[in-house]
Amino acid sequence: MALLGFVIDFFTSINGIFYLIAYLFGGIPFGLIYGKIFGKINITEHGSGSIGATNVLRVLKETKPEIAKKIAILTIISDALKGIIIIAIARYLGLTYEAQWFIALLAVLGHCYSPFLRFEGGKGVATGVGVIAMFLPLEALIGLVTWFIVGKILKISSIASLFGVLIGVSSSFIIHPEVPYIETHTPLVIIAFIIFYKHIPNIVRLIQKKESKII
After folding, report:
1. How many structural domains compose the chain?
2. Range of 48's domain?
C-alpha cells in the first residue's frame, strides 16, 4: 500500500504529471503521421523503418519526390518541438531545472521508445538537439553546424548525426565546465548515450560499408 500511495502521489504531483506528459508527447510519431497524411504510406514498413526525418525523406523520395524534403523538414521541426514545448511550459510554471532536465530526457526516451509504437521509435537526434537548445543553445548550435557540414560532405545522415551529437555534447565540457543550475553533465551524457545506442544498426552498417547515402 505504501508503494501504491507513493506512485499515486508521484503521478498526481505537478512534476510527475509533467514527466508523464513529456514521455507521451515525446512518443508522438510525427514522421509516421506525416507519411500517412501526405504520402499515403506507412514509413515504418519501408526503408529503415524509423519514424525520423531521414527515413521520411528516403521513403517519400520514392513515392512523393515533390514533397519529400518539405515533409522531412516538417518532421525535424515537429520532433524538435516535442521537448521544447513541454520544457517551456514547465519553466513558465516554475519547475526546477533538475525537473526540466528530466523532462528533456523523458521526451527523448519517448521519441526513441514510443508507447504508441510498441516501444519502437526514432533515433532521438532532432528531439535531443531541441531539448538541449533550451538549456545550452550554443552547444546545440555547434552540434547543428557540425551535422550540416558533415552531412554536406559525406552525404550520410547517420555519420552527420553522430558527429553532431558528439561534438555538441563534448563542447559543453569546454564552454560550460559546470552546466548552469545543475552543475553536472549527466543528462547530456545520457541523451548522447541513448542516441548512440539507437544508432548501433547504423554503426554496424557503416563498418560493413553498407550504410545508405542521402542524395
Report:
1. 1
2. 2-207
Residue 70 lies in a domain: yes
> Does the model's pTM come out above 0.70?
yes
From the centroid of its chain, how far is CA 90? 19
Ordered alpha helix ranges (H), 113-199: 125-133, 137-154, 157-175, 186-198
Residue 214 lies in a domain: no
pLDDT tens for 186-205 read 999 999 999 999 999 999 99
Please give the grid coordinates belonging to residue 31: 514522421
User: Taking the CB of residue 176, how many other CB atoms lie within 10 A of it?
Assistant: 16
Residue 215 lies in a domain: no
Residues in the chain: 215
Ramachandran angles phi, psi of 94, nearest 5°: 90, 20
d(C-alpha 30, C-alpha 34), whole Å:
6
Q: Give the CA dihedral 62, 67, 71, 74, nearest 10 degrees.
A: 160
Residue located via cell numbers 543553445 = 137
